[in-house]
Amino acid sequence: MTTILATSSTAGTSVVTAPRVVSIDIFRGLTMAVMIFVNQLSGVQGLPWWTYHAHAQQDLMTYVDMVFPFFLFIVGMSMPLSVEQRLKRNPSIPALWGHVLLRVLGLLALGLILANAEACDPAQMHISGALWAVLALLSAGLYLNVYPKLEAFPAYSLWLRTVGLIGVFILLAIFRRATPGGHSAWIDFSYPEILGLIALSYFAASVLYIPTRRWNWMQPVWFVLLVLLNVLAAAKMLQFPNHVSLYVWPFGNGAMVSIIFAGIITSSLFAGEKASRRPRPAMAIAGCFAILSLAIGAVLTPLGISKIRATPTWSLYSIGAAVIIFGLLFWACDVQRWTKWAFFVRPAGENTLTTYLLPDLWYFLSICFGLTFIDTHFVAGWPAVVKTFVFTFLILAVSWVLTKSKVRLQF
Q: Which pTM was predicted?
């Protein structure tokens, strides 16, 4: 495989752009598709146990329990590339940290909107929770959308983003919920939804990665230390990670951040200029990394296997699976150039945040308009599975249309 470098010249200076690793987008798109499918499948009755999330009391994991860690792994794979490109555009470290904090706060806000929407008290707010969520998501979309430039009206994007941001602040300000004791309360921060968990884990990983990004040997060191933290917490030799809020200690018990660092390590193997010139050694090293992760995970099974408890075996098994799947995709898509088969999921990988929010937007819109047919028909067995496949296909189709129409949400 040859390295393709895009070089542009501006005012006598050249800017070299790193080659895009297609398999990252496709891996992300496939993960999005599976996420949509399993989220819809969770309400279906009468299916085998392995089609659902394992309960916290169970010592097992299903393929469904690997969707979230795959997202974390992809965050890690993208981090070195995004940091490098951002520093090329602006070498200011304070500006980089400003971007990191803005992304963290934005994902947290979206996560809290999704987590609190069903707790809205219409009696206090004079608006239904579903309508509140739709307006909040649309306002966030106005702010986050990447607008094309218009020479006739160059400031239009600023106006739309401002309107969106003001809308989000207003909707958050008017939010009210009723507590179990009958009192009025504001946003519940206890669970920031998957987007919030990703945001806090991304921030924790940034704290470690950005200052040490020039030292490649430090990333495996951080990974080992995070796995060790996870092991000690699972063995109850360290108690504080299980009792301190993620807002105070975003590293948690080390599991989620270790998965991000596994993605960072994998990215360093495949996404750099040297790696792209020598794919076979990269795939060999990645294979060893995957086998080692699976082997250590197997050794640590006495500490439990659980996504809910974020045990070391869950994270290491997820890492091993993610590395193997990505390695196969890299060989197929970047080495052999077999990419046409992924045309339908690739837009979801390139336009991830938009695709992620589409099922939630549909859910709240269906409540607003009283569309209950989908939820009340074909709710069990294989007819429900077929319905879930159709729903997933339609969401991906909408994502494809929005992506082609240049509608892209991005921090």
A: 0.91
